[in-house]
Specification:
Blueprint lengths: L23 E5 L23 H11 L3 E5 L9 H8 L5 E5 L8 H10 L1 E8 L5 H11 L5 E6 L2 H7 L3 H4 L3 E3 L14 H12 L3 E4 L2 H4 L10 H10 L4 E3 L15 H12 L2 H16 L4
Parallel strand pairs: 1-2, 2-3, 3-4, 4-5, 5-6, 6-7, 7-8
Length: 288
């Protein structure tokens, strides 16, 4: 296969602001070891081998205690690498799997839950996934798990948000809702997202600034979107690194520099700490 090969993550330096404590990185991935967990043949890219030990060392350098591993597309519905990583993380990590709601039984879900799984990732590219969404919501009700949604663009987000109220599940939206720098004005879907965040109807991740602005740090064209989210509903946000940054467009950042953007986005260190510590503890530990 002639696939893009992703570079490894850059060596991380500590952030410049004092964020040490019970902080969370709410979006990261592990890849490999490939000898034990080979990548799927239908993948769109080939990532570097970056193991749970590498990721825990990265958290330590950032001064963070907790992380959330999200199933990457290269593994499809095979969550073995993610679950293995959770089991070797000494309770520091939780996980978000990808699954077919009809193909996973209660026993499997219970085993995943014991390992630290607390959510399911859904790739949403338009209204054609409405049936899948309904089936997933029915499967997750009563489990204490949440739905982690990646909308491919503003139009996809617009088609997803009307479903949220009837899901009766906690919902986390990835990548700031997937706006793009070329949007010359705020899409209606982003305004709806802001309104729903204010109402407490869902949550969002301050993550993936390079998907908005591929020009490199400090991602100035991503700043207005992040700041709008923080002004609208700082209590409904978490921060995610997206380590080790697979399929990044533009220069590879180090995660300390990414974390240094948070106080600017949030309007100060106090709000940044809430986004980094208090909010994810509420969301991922079931206090919502």
């Amino acid at each position: 296969m002639n696939l893009p090969t992703c570079p490894p993550a850059a060596p991380t330096q500590p952030p410049s602001w004092p964020c040490a404590g019970d902080g969370w990185d709410a979006h990261a991935h592990v890849f490999g070891p490939v000898s034990a967990f080979p990548y799927g043949s239908a993948r769109r890219y080939t990532p570097p081998e970056q193991t749970v030990e590498d990721y825990l060392a990265n958290l330590d350098r950032l001064g963070l205690r907790h992380g959330v591993l999200v199933q990457p597309s290269v593994y499809g519905d095979d969550n073995a690498a993610l679950v293995d990583a959770l089991q070797r993380a000494d309770g520091r990590l939780l996980g978000v799997v990808q699954m077919n709601a009809l193909a996973v039984d209660d026993r499997q879900m219970a085993q995943w839950h014991d390992a630290g799984v607390r959510g399911v990732r859904l790739w949403w590219d338009g209204p054609g996934r409405a049936g899948e969404l309904a089936g997933m919501a029915a499967r997750l009700r009563g489990t204490g798990w949440h739905l982690d949604v990646y909308a491919s663009d503003a139009a996809a987000l617009a088609s997803f948000l009307p479903h949220v109220e009837r899901l009766t599940l906690p919902v986390m939206v990835e990548a700031m809702g997937s706006p793009r720098a070329e949007d010359t004005h705020s899409p209606e879907s982003f305004q709806t997202l802001l309104a729903m965040l204010r109402e407490g109807s869902l949550w969002a991740k301050l993550s993936h600034p390079y998907k908005i602005d591929p020009g490199g740090l400090p991602y100035p064209r991503a700043r207005p979107w992040a700041q709008a989210l923080a002004r609208a509903a700082p209590s409904q946000l978490v921060w995610g690194s997206d380590w080790p940054h697979p399929m990044i467009a533009g220069p590879m950042p180090h995660d300390g520099a990414l974390l240094d953007l948070l106080p600017e986005w949030a309007g100060g260190v106090e709000v940044a700490r809430r986004i980094l510590q208090d909010n994810p503890a509420r969301f991922y530990l079931g206090e919502i």
